[in-house]
Amino acid sequence: MQIQLAKHTISQQHKPFVIAEMSGNHNQSLDRALAIVDAAAAAGAHAIKLQTYTADTMTLKGVHTIEDQKSLWYKYELYDLYKQAYTPWEWHQPIFERAKAQGLIAFSSPFDESAVDFLETLDVPLYKVASFENTDHPLLKKIAQTGKPVIMSTGVASVADIAQAVEVLHNNGCTQLVLLKCTSTYPASPQNTNLLTIPHLQQLYNCIVGLSDHTMGIGASVAAVALGARVIEKHFTLRRADGGVDSAFSLEPEELQALVTETERAFLALGHIQYGIQDIEKPSLAYKRSIYVAQNIKAGELFTTQNLRRIRPANGLEPKYYELLLGKKASKDIVAGTPLSWDLVI
User: Fold this and answer.
1) What is the tens place of the pLDDT at every residue in 233-255?
2) Could you tell me the pTM of the whole model?
3) Which one of 41, 97, 241, 276 has the minimum C-beta count within 10 Å?
4) Element (H, E) at 257
5) Do the Cβ atoms of 306 and 281 come closer than 8 Å?
6) Is the pLDDT of residue 325 over 80?
7) For residue 1, what pLDDT is reported?
8) Which residues are within 8 A (CB) of 332 and not within 5 positions of it... i.e. 6 or more apart?
9) How does DSSP classify residue 248?
């Protein structure tokens, strides 16, 4: 399967599709949001992703305050967190237009049906299902019924949850699906990322797979590509020091550029199963070891460990004959530094 998006193709045979997730890193400034788009394009990302919701479409005022002391959002009331983090809907069009001008694919994660209706008016080319929404079957139906490609994260979901979500999407018109391995902690650690799930996920659902990566740095994403990931999603900001709800686990521009470069290198390095000498290696054959005469030898003198050596380059007999030659005689006088050949052996 492959998904064609403007000039980008997502498939197992193409280099990784790198998504810069803006999330709430605009810090409620449209100018900053546009600067994030520009920086993502300059770093070589292929797409920019938003999140489309309001505090009122996400939760109710007063229903929950985050009490986990390890959370980046400890003591936030959920409603207030989303009010701070959301991307105003009127910003979507100028952000999408800037992305298009910069050659980026622009799309979003809708968090309820009204967000899907709104994004349809902007003609988004695909949709993202966030991990926390992957069991919201009415939303999945709405997204699938657009007929557009869907990328779905699989965080905080059981095997049964994922299977049911995939079934709902397929039964409602989704024919192009990407599943992302995701650990929904912020940040995630390498130890709980479990990248070996990626090839298994691909086997289970016979679809394109990837990684929604909440770890620090780019190592997990590069490793994911080696295991079959062809979509990489990373939160992105201009500078973590600027603060913001997601800044702590977001990449900066130089890191995003490294991510694009190194994931492509990892993809290119996979190649195919290969043994033997490649054409590109053939010039290097000359610098393998071979057997040389290390001391002047008279005709009839025995070859020994003192007067034969295995050295570079490869102009003499192969080292595999070394032990066979020991104790044999020279056919004529041989000058030190001569590569040994069979005509010099009795």
Assistant:
1) 999 999 999 998 888 899 999 99
2) 0.90
3) 276
4) helix 253-270
5) no
6) yes
7) 87
8) 299, 344
9) G
Structure tokens of 177? 């699906």
* pLDDT classification of 303: cutoffs 50, 70, 90: very high
Question: Closest Cα partner for 85 from 112, 117, 51, 114?
Answer: 51
Domains in the chain, ordered, with CATH?
Answer: 2-270 (3.20.20.70), 279-344 (3.90.1210.10)
Shortest CA distance to 215 belongs to which of 227, 198, 232, 230? 232
87 neighbors 51 (Cβ within 8 angstroms): yes
Using CA atoms, how far apart are residues 31 and 46, in angstroms rounded to an integer? 21
pLDDT beyond 80 at 73: no
Reading the block at residue 8, the tokens are: 């980008």
Confidence of residue 116 (pLDDT cuts 50, 70, 90): very high
Tell me the three-class secondary structure of 119-175, residue by residue: HHHCCCCCEEECHHHCCCHHHHHHHHCCCCCEEEECCCCCHHHHHHHHHHHHHCCCC
H or E segment to which residue 255 belongs? helix 253-270
Q: Read off the pLDDT band of 296 (50, 70, 90).
A: very high
CA distance 92 to 118: 10
Instruction: Give the tokens for residue 228.
Output: 């079959």
Closest CA to 157 of 133, 191, 122, 177: 133
Which single residue is written with the structure tokens 């079934």? 167
* Neighbour-count burial of 47, counting CB atoms closer than 10 A to its CB (0-12 exposed, 13-18 middle, 19+ buried): buried
Whole-number Å distance between alpha carbons of 315 and 333: 19
**pLDDT digits 0-9 by tens, 51-66:** 999 999 999 999 999 9
